[in-house]
Amino acid sequence: MEAAFTPPVAIRLSEAALAEDWVATRLRIYNPSSGEPGVGLRYRIFISKEGGEVAHQSPLLPAQEAVEYDFGAAALEEGRYTVRLEFEQEGRLYLDAPSLEFCKQRHRGLFSPFAVASAGGVALEVGEINAVLQMAATSQGEAVERIKIWEQTRRSTTLSVEVERPSALWVECAGAGCGISLSPEEEPRIVTPGGRCCLGVLPEGEAVLGFHSLFSHANAAGEVRLLELVPWEVALPQAPPEVPLLGINDWAEYFAGDSLPQVGQIARIIAGQRELGLGEIAWSAARSWVEYRSRLADASPWPVVPLEEAARRDPRAQNYAGRTAVLNTACVLREAMQQAAKQGVVLAAWVALNTHYYAEALGGICCSRWFQKHPRFHQWRKGAPHAFPGEVCYYFEEVRSERIAIIDELAGLGVERFVLDATRQPRVALYHPEMVAAYREQTGVDPLEIDESHGAVYEGWIRWRSGFFTAFLRELRATLARRHPSLRAHVTMRIPQCGVKLNLASGFDVETWLKEGLIERLCLNPLDIYEGGGLREVAPYVEACHAAGVEVYGGIGQTWAWENAGATAALHRMASLLDAGVDGVDLYESELLARCHPLHPLVPHLRSRSTIATLLEQSNLAACYPLSAENVLLGYDNHSRWAGGGWRMSGFGENSL
Asked: Which of 153, 205, 164 is nearest to 183 (CA)?
């Protein structure tokens, strides 16, 4: 019996083989196709229960290639197990082999299907739904009733349920999904297909649940396939939050597809995020269009052209019928401000600074009339034969004044906090012919003939042109101070998380902003549009911002919620941001978390570094959903791109900064 080498074999749980109520029905054994020990190597799998008792032993298996082995986990009892491999080659037994711990626990817990386990065998269920902290299911639960909601009838129905003890209400929907309210007074929570979700807690006594058909573009039926009550109890104390979470709300996405396009759902959007621990929300107020009732002559309300007209030009415009219906009903921003005040949530106006799309986009519903009337102000790329149709150049005072007028009007409505976003189109000044000519006349340098390789000459150019966006911030602060002297204005700038010089080349002179006190907070969005070389550590920004007394937030893109593996990626990304010393983190499109979502329970624990460590070290989350080359970028902005077409400081093409 020897332990002379570590066999080149690793154990990994197969995600495809996850059972409904517990982790791991199969092991996937990975083995290189060549190299020592190689020939004649065989292995045996041992599954041992806590305490050492062997629960399963496989026959000797050849270790020649990657295989999946079904070890019959359905027959195992609940508990913690260790999976161990023993290897044999030419009669010699090798014990120095990898092992893996996993937990089998039948439950309907708040983190299903992750089966989170903690020390001592106690189930650690994570979540903060309806102000309830950590809950652990103590029984299997039972189905209440199967209900079908048919969209064609546009009907609502109720169901009375007798709750014997405080219980979690779990639901699973099919078809178009449905809206479910936990009481007659509550706005329905939207439940869409895609997994079992916890709606919240029902207290002991009679509960009257409401079921509502969703508006469905496909006129599809909604079906409640599973409705069950699971008794629960407080399991473990929750670690106190260490950093705040800021929700970036493209709120209209909540009404995309099958939805309830009613103004009452604004309260639900805010409540759904507050329940998950988001104490501040940046609410979309303006892009090329405006999403509030404006009196500005140059402002274009959504939709810029009637929806029916746009849909005739581009059928995809019909996907925005829910957004349009809500905006036609009320001033959504004013409603959001009222609801946020009622619920104790801080609400900021989120204003995109350079998102104009182009005149024909989606049949014309999203490109403002102001942008279309002023082609002179459109952005020019390096060496391009014509202007780019979706951006403006901040070299022009008129461009800066158009955005300042919108922010000024928002301040007049009582908005004090502004999140100014330049991340999706982070090029506020490039190579507009009038700007290039002005620089050439001042310096004798032709910007079209230099790039990063020209060192200080290039840096002089990008620093000069970034001054026009800095002028925008100066003019904004002066306008707010002059017109709203009692306003405690709080300005956040949201820019890509890339190198300081790359941001300067895009027009963002962060050093000057901090020196002049132009912003109160800097948000760094994980957008990499720099051919894979853009995303950089946040430490330089943290150091500079803290020295200036300015907050700095990291960011997690909405891609983290696209699939379960995003939970692992989000935890690792959040841990790295907290370790770097950020003051908080923004979650993009967090309004979608106000819909019932399987990853809900993870959100509150993104605020605590100690809880993140516990989840990563003691749970099976990473074993079920390991990071890989395919999913490690979940949590980046979904507009990131790496396979060419990105921006660079070198060269003389249209994508050269």
From this structure: 205
The more confident residue out of 174 and 113 is 174
Q: Identify the helix (H) or strand (E) that includes residue 42.
A: strand 42-49
The Cα 350–Cα 338 span in angstroms is 16
Model pLDDT for residues 631-642, shown as the tens digit of each residue: 788 888 888 876
- For residue 8, say if its preceding peptide bond is cis, omega within 30 degrees of 0: no
pLDDT digits (tens, 9 = 90+) for 333-347: 999 999 999 999 999
Cis bond leading into 240, ω under 30°? no
> Is the separation of the CB atoms in 425 and 355 below 8 Å?
yes
H or E stretch covering 57: strand 54-57
Q: Where are the beta strands (DSSP E) in 446-501?
A: 490-496
Q: Which uninterrupted H or E stretch holds 501?
A: helix 500-506
Cis amide leading into 601 (omega within 30):
no
Place of tokens 């189930």: 123
CA distances, 494 to each of 246, 522, 537 (Å): 12, 6, 16
As a whole number of angstroms, the distance between CA 525 and CA 352 comes to 13
> Inter-axis angle of helices 456-483 and 433-443, to 10 degrees?
120
Which residue would you say has higher pLDDT here, 196 or 588?
588
**What pLDDT digit, counting tens, does each position of 395-435 carry?**
999 999 999 999 999 999 999 999 999 998 889 999 999 99
Confidence band of 29 (pLDDT split at 50, 70, 90): low
The CA-based angle 147-148-150, given to 5 degrees, is 150
Confidence (pTM): 0.81
The mean pLDDT value of the chain amounts to: 80
DSSP secondary structure, 404-441, as one string? HHHHHHHHHTT--EEEEE-SSS--S-S--HHHHHHHHH
> 535 forms bridges with which residues in the sheet?
498
What are the Cα distances from residue 239, in Å, to 126, 134, 362, 613? Answer: 11, 10, 46, 11
**Selection from 413, 283, 304, 425 nearest residue 367 by Cα:** 304
167 exposure class (CB count in 10 Å sphere: 0-12, 13-18, 19+): buried
The pair of three-digit structure tokens given for residue 267, joined into one six-digit string: 């309260």
Q: In the chain, how long is the greatest CA-to-CA distance?
A: 87
CB of 426 closer than 8 Å to CB of 496: yes
- Count, residues in the chain: 657
In single-letter form, the type of residue at position 621 comes to: L
Residue 522: both structure tokens together: 């800097």
DSSP per-residue letters across 521-564: EEEEE----STT--B--SHHHHHHHHHTT-EEEEEE-GGGGSST
Burial letters 64-81, b for 16+ CB under 10 A, else e: eeeeeeebebeebeeebb
DSSP-assigned letter for residue 583: S
Is the CB of residue 418 less than 8 Å from the CB of residue 430? Answer: no
Token pair of 224 as six digits? 């409640």
